[in-house]
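Troubleshooting: if your tokenizer reports a length mismatch, compare your output against this known-good record of 783 residues.
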Amino acid sequence: MATPRLITFYDSYTPFLTGGRYAITIHQEVRDAGGRSLSHPGESGDQFPEVTQHFEVHAPRFALQPGFVHAVHPPSGAVGPFDNQLAHVSLTRLTLPWEQILAEGTDGESEGERVPWMALLIFAENELPGDPRAQGEADTEYTVQDVLDLHKDSRSTILGPEIEPDTVIPQVLQGRCRTIDVPAKVFTAVVPRFDELNYLTHVREVTERPTLSAKSKMSAEEFTETGRYTLVLANRFPRTYGNYAAHLVSLEGFVGCLKPEGGPRTPDGIDSVRLVSLMSWSFTSHPDPGGHFSEVVHNLALPGEPFDDEQHPNPDHENALSLRLPPPADEDTEETAEVNKRLRWGYAPLSYLTAEGEQTLAWYRGPLIPVPPPPLPPGLPPFTRASDSGDHRARADAAPVLGTPDGLLIYDPQWGVFDLTYAVAWTMGRLLALSHAPARTAQKAFRRKARTAFSAAVTRLTTLPEISGLDPRTLTTAAAIAHPRPATDRLHTLLADGLARRLTRRRDRPGAGSTPRAAPSAAPTRAHRLRTVLERGEVYEALARSLADETGPVGDIIDALAALDLVPFDHLVADQRMLPQESVRFFYVDPTWITALVDGFVNAGAQTTTDNILQTAVLRRSAAEANTVPWPEAGLLLRSRLARDWPGLIIEGDKDGRPVEIVRREYLAPDLLLCLFAEVPDTVTLAEPHQDLYIGAQVEHGDLFLDLRYLADNGRTGAPISDDDNVSAHLRTGTDTMDIHRIAPELTRRLHELGQLPDGELTPAGFAVQLIQSPTRQTFRQP
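Known-good structure output:
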């Protein structure tokens, strides 16, 4: 498991000097106590001559070394639903966005902060004439001098940067640079305003913090590698399908186009703007027509909301997410009330053909039920639950033998219908034992070994000690089973003691053959001997231990049955209307149903009373000892594209503040996921995979929203607030570009109201925190 990370945001990392030419002049003058200069005019030379030192600060300006780029998102060549994400590039050179002055001849400061001189622009297909397919291509035929000469040509319809060539190192002027020609309309639509550039650049420090919850780990590359990185964000959402080219461009010399009050503009007569592209890549945005994770999971939860989207009351909201057929609304008659009650309990009506050939109605309910498990029907023995005994193995050991399917039919004389629930479970267990090859083989091996071991135990425990050499009064069942050949060993002992000589002498004595013999006593019957052995308390434990090797495979089958692994889906969900498309349904697990299933399995192939004893008491006891998996108590069925499109979907159960063990999680179909819990959870959470952390906005009903986050230093910095802000209302007209000039003040106002900005404005670091979109989590609570 990756070590959790702590992320710290900074507004900027501004160097003391920007790139360019500098001169330091030193002038010294000596004055007396009265402040008069001791250097007199007309004298030959000053007391301390003036000294000037010229130097240059070299900083990237028209090209970028590849090593300065740490990562880009979306990755180059990636295809995915990026329509709600902002592209960004992380840089290893922290000061890079502030190493040049944006506007030549000015101090380049706005409200005390140096404005970044670069921006990340996103272009769709057919927006760049030189790259109509948006592959991230750039032109390399121009030198830096050619680009800077454009603004001197009054006849040119291409606007170039207004940078004086004498401020550029001569060697750089003659070097080639990568450029793109952006149509004037596209430029004004996508380029950030001058006062927006600060919000699109920030510094992020990633450090290890082992004390954080493992659930907060972040898997995107730029979030997990420890260190400091500068991030430059795009301001445009790639909301339509197609390729997009991302260009990190220099805006130096274009400050006049970025400062107009109404937004970016180009001078009259300009057809396109030539920008220096420092680096570029491309990706494909493939918006999912089915919606984003947040939309899909929100729709799953809607039936359980007290009000629907139109704020109409939903009286059945507490039971709407239960696995059952919707009951009819009308309960005017006694019959309707009975049907409603059965449906609320999870039953489905079925046509039933009795053994006498009569066609009638019957009720059936699988092991997945919408209500807490009911007590056993009258006439059936009590059931020991694992939670009662404190040991999950007690289920298989102490659960009763439920008999035969006919004995498990429940008849309701008031309405003249049968309840087939437990009879079907028992029959299903027997059918699985006969049709499932591994189960059949395991059962056969156990039965053969069990008969041999039990027969040997009965014989050795009931044979006279004069013959067996074993004293049944002190002999344990385990010793009797473990002894390999007691009768043979006894015979060898007698022979060694002179049995042959004694028999010969006795036959040779005169008249020996005519000695009268006493009538032998009647030998105990086989049934009597069986009862004698079965009355011994340790028999079952000793047989279970001796059959451990043979019980293992059968125990594995029983564990699989307890997890409903081999049960056909139509026996789990009797009616497909219980689980409609795009739904999640929660349920309890009926332990009596599983008990009947296991009983039907272990009784398969039993031919005699001895077989019944061995395959119920002994086999179940052995399986309980070998069992390491608890029987499930609750679970959920998810029939949705979430199961298909998010294979790393996170499902978590929580009870009293601790996680609940998942007994089984399996895809029953590409869009159908079954999850069983060892306990009944208080809450269940469905969450996006952690690697889906990104910069952007959430999508709800086609609109973009920002989940506001805590900024005050209250121990919850960065945690989501139960509030949001509509981004779609703050997009530039006719484009998917954020109007940060409007968004930032609105976020500032909202955060002020929430007490998260005691004073001042939203900073670039605070704005970046609002843009972090952590994995969506939808929590369901027990009514």
